[in-house]
Design brief:
The chain is built from 15 helices and 13 strands. Strand 10, helix 8 and strand 11 form a beta-alpha-beta unit. It is globular, with a radius of gyration of 22 Å. Bound molecules: flavin mononucleotide. The site of flavin mononucleotide (FMN) has 22 residues, from helix 11. This is FMNH2-dependent monooxygenase.
Length: 427
């Protein structure tokens, strides 16, 4: 069996795409509630809400493209969506993105513990270092820290947060009404965390939630990002690529887990995957053909995506010439993946054929065949659906594909635990 997650943006949800829910335009909360319930009926492990704190302006050195087209902006705070979805669902995990570069550890530990209580133990946080100078400037810096220092900060941050989250012993709350004792203060410890970047006295002023340490999710692709994930993550949302690339990625992460003294099966690696589902296999291939043709036609959108990930203004490059070597302090892995093995292609060729992730294309039955084959080959733990929330996408994937997977015994038929951690580690 494998696990399923959905990569969600708290944003415009492809407002101008075919089949978008015009009546449910962002930020209509019903859209998100209906979506979370549909995923829960389908047996998804979690939905993961991505985040960023800036309006992209790398492309064309202007915010114009992002704001005109609703690309990566607007974007609301994902943490605010969690209690709303928790109150509307019972079993599905809710992971929201938080940046280790700008969120103070005490606030992070306290907020996540409160959300863990409110959700009955179903929350997680996706730890990112944030990759854009504009983010850093929004938090008062001139530019972002260097890539390797961002991960040194993230490591210190994760240690500080973990120390705070474990500052109450598991049996510290006595809750003895007859004796009038709420908690045993000898079981609640001053943390006195002193790191290179953070310090916190502690203890936390809230008792541990049902999971004590909410599920930690991570997406680091670079060597330092992978080391960080190996030390702290419970689930990794991984970029996808060729089968060979995914196999290598997972092998590498598993080796890192052993180096970190952890069980390699303790971390669930979900690969970011696009799904194109049709009534028949041929329908799906036709949908894929149309989607790729739309991508080729929207060269500006493709370049803007590349600029967003890399921080490099591709509007200044010659579209019909090979791309000179580029380097970035932003999302290094994503940027490197764009150009890997394409040194002789023109920018136009690269931009119009970049598929951000693995594509599963077919009827529910042939798509399920492909998913089964990918998992058998890669040995991975599951898929992270990469799709805007449109009624059609939800119906295709949660309504049609998931029941087919369940019928084959490839995904759970029911949740076996009440917490996200429990469900994630059930198999
Ligand atoms: C599936 C997935 C989800 C991601 N979500 C976010 C996000 O919400 N916010 C963010 O700033 N970066 C996000 N990233 C980017 C990563 O945090 C990271 O910057 C990127 O994978 C590059 O890895 P590196 O920093 O180790 O080079 C995501 C990456 C992947 C693959």
């Amino acid at each position: 069996m494998f696990h399923l997650g959905w990569f969600l943006s708290f944003s415009t949800q492809a407002w101008h795409a075919p089949h978008s829910d015009r009546g449910g335009l962002f930020p209509n909360t019903d859209v998100y509630v209906d979506f979370a319930r549909a995923l829960e009926r389908a047996g998804f492990d979690y939905l993961m809400i991505e985040d960023g704190s800036f309006i992209p302006d790398a492309y064309g050195s202007s915010m114009e493209h992002s704001l005109r087209t609703g690309f990566a902006s607007p974007k609301h705070d994902p943490m605010a969506l969690v209690p709303l979805l928790a109150a509307s669902t019972e079993k599905i995990g809710l992971i929201a993105t938080m940046t280790t570069s700008f969120y103070p550890p005490f606030l992070a530990a306290r907020l996540m513990t409160t959300l863990d209580h409110l959700s009955g133990g179903r929350v997680g946080f996706n730890l990112v270092t944030a990759h854009n100078d504009r983010t850093a400037q929004n938090y008062g810096m001139d530019k972002h820290w260097d890539h390797s220092e961002r991960y040194a900060i993230a490591t210190d941050w994760a240690q500080a947060v973990t120390a705070l989250l474990t500052s109450w012993d598991e049996d510290a709350v006595v809750d003895d009404v007859a004796a009038g004792i709420y908690a045993d203060h000898t079981k609640i410890h001053q943390t006195d965390y002193e790191g290179s970047y953070f310090s916190s006295r502690g203890p936390l002023n809230v008792p541990p939630g049902p999971q004590r340490i909410p599920v930690i999710c991570q997406a680091g692709g670079s060597p330092v990002g992978r080391v960080f994930a190996s030390r702290f993550a419970d689930t990794i949302v991984a970029p996808s690529g060729s089968i060979e690339w995914m196999k290598q990625y997972r092998t590498d992460i598993r080796a890192g887990l052993v180096d970190a003294g952890r069980d390699p099966d303790a971390v669930k690696v979900l690969f970011l995957t696009d799904f194109i589902i049709g009534d028949t296999h041929e329908d799906a291939l036709e949908l894929q053909r149309r989607r790729h043709a739309a991508m080729v036609a929207d060269i500006e959108g493709r370049l803007a995506y590349m600029s967003f990930a890399s921080g490099i203004d591709f509007s200044t490059f010659d579209l019909d010439a090979p791309v000179p070597p580029v380097s970035t302090n932003a999302a290094k892995t994503t940027t490197a993946q764009m150009f890997a093995g394409r040194e002789h292609q023109t920018l136009r060729e690269i931009a119009s054929t970049i598929i951000p992730s693995l594509e599963i294309v077919g009827s529910p039955a042939t798509a399920a065949d492909q998913m089964e084959a990918v998992m058998a080959e890669v040995g991975g733990d599951g898929f992270l659906v990469n799709s805007p929330v449109t009624p059609r996408a939800v119906a295709d994937i949660a309504g049609d594909l998931a029941p087919e997977l369940r019928r084959r015994g490839l995904i759970r038929s029911e949740y076996s635990a009440d917490t996200l951690r429990g469900n994630l580690t059930a198999y």
